[in-house]
Design a protein that fits this description.
Order of helices and strands: EHEHEHEHEHEHEHEH
Oligomer: single chain
Radius of gyration: 18 Å
Structural class: alpha/beta
Shape: globular
Bound molecules: 1-(2,5-dioxo-2,5-dihydro-1H-imidazol-4-yl)urea
Strand content: 5-15%
Helix content: 25-40%
């Protein structure tokens, strides 16, 4: 089985962190690659960043299809491009917010999300509603650390712990969801400090994809997630024109 974990931002150090988290939970027969798109934003913390990350993600999915990848993880907490990736991939595709929220609902009665900047909170709430977690999600809190400063800010882990502790108290929640792929390496430490399950969506999504592939299950090919109708794309997006029309590569190779 071959799983591809896509870091939707272009920061290689973050992809390496994501890969460690995913690699720690794969079974012996699973091959994993963690990829960094060639085009996109250095980090994703706005709707603009998120929109501009999608062509890079789709390029990695298209390349994965050519390489025989069995399933994909989209490793950014806004789950960018998830629906489009499902239209393109023959195997399952799971976003880390989707995986983390589902896992949290299997572990407790209510969860709180600890994320990076306050401005990403709205997207997290929107995704909770989409995934049927609108009631279980009791709060979403920023810790005022931009994505690319998670590694360099000496206070990161203490801040995440403090915000998580306050969230558990305020929300009367019993599970914490980490709201950024760049927090994957904090999971064990935060959990040990808070004494509740702390869900890293990267690990959760990797295990879920692996499980679906093992079960022989894939995204339904009929209806909304059927392959997108072929058409021409122009300008910077010309490479995304589908094969039925012209030597399709979905994006610059
Ligand atoms: C993220 C994430 O997971 N990756 C990224 O670049 N931005 N999420 C976030 N809430 O900031």
């Amino acid at each position: 089985m071959h799983i591809r974990v896509i870091n939707p931002n272009t920061t290689v150090a973050m992809t390496e962190k994501i890969e460690l988290s995913a690699r720690a939970v794969i079974g012996p027969g699973t091959r994993l690659d963690a990829v960094t798109p060639a085009l996109g934003p250095a980090s994703i913390e706005s709707h603009y960043d998120e929109a501009l990350s999608v062509p890079g993600i789709l390029t990695e999915v298209a390349g994965g299809e050519r390489a025989g990848v069995d399933g994909y993880v989209i490793a950014c907490f806004g789950d960018p491009g998830l629906d489009a990736a499902r239209e393109l991939a023959s195997g399952p595709v799971i976003g880390i917010a989707e995986a983390a929220m589902h896992a949290a609902m299997l572990l407790g009665r209510g969860f709180s999300v600890v994320t990076t900047l306050d401005r990403t909170r709205g997207r997290a709430w929107e995704l909770a509603a989409r995934y049927g977690a609108g009631r279980a999600c009791r709060g979403v809190y920023g810790c005022a650390i931009p994505v690319l400063e998670l590694d360099t800010d000496p206070d990161t882990v203490e801040r995440v712990i403090a915000v998580g502790r306050a969230a558990l108290e305020r929300d009367d929640s019993d599970v914490i969801v980490l709201g950024c792929a760049g927090m994957a390496d904090l999971c064990a430490r935060v959990s040990a400090e808070l004494g509740v399950p702390v869900v890293d969506g990267v690990a959760a999504a990797t295990v879920f994809v692996q499980s679906l592939v093992t079960l022989g299950l894939r995204t339904s090919p009929v209806g909304e997630y059927a392959a997108p109708p072929p058409k021409h794309y122009t300008g910077l997006l010309a490479g995304f024109t589908r094969p039925d029309l012209a030597g399709w590569s979905a994006g610059p190779d």
